[in-house]
Amino acid sequence: MRLGVVEIDNSPDSNATPVVFLHGFGGLAKQWWGFQTSISFKAPTLAFDMPGHGNSLDYPDFGPPAKAAKAVITELVERGIEYAHFVGHSMGGAISSLVALMAPERIASLTLLAPGGYGTEFNHPLLMQWAGAKTREELAGVLPNFFGPGFNIPDKMIDFQLEARSKIGSVDALVSIGSGMSSDGKQGMLPVDDVLNGPYPISVVWGEDDQVLPVSQAKEIEDKVDLHILKGVGHSPVEEATDAVRKVVLAQLS
Question: What is the DSSP string of 123-166?
Answer without folding.
Answer: -HHHHHHHHH--SHHHHHHHGGGGS-TT----HHHHHHHHHHHT
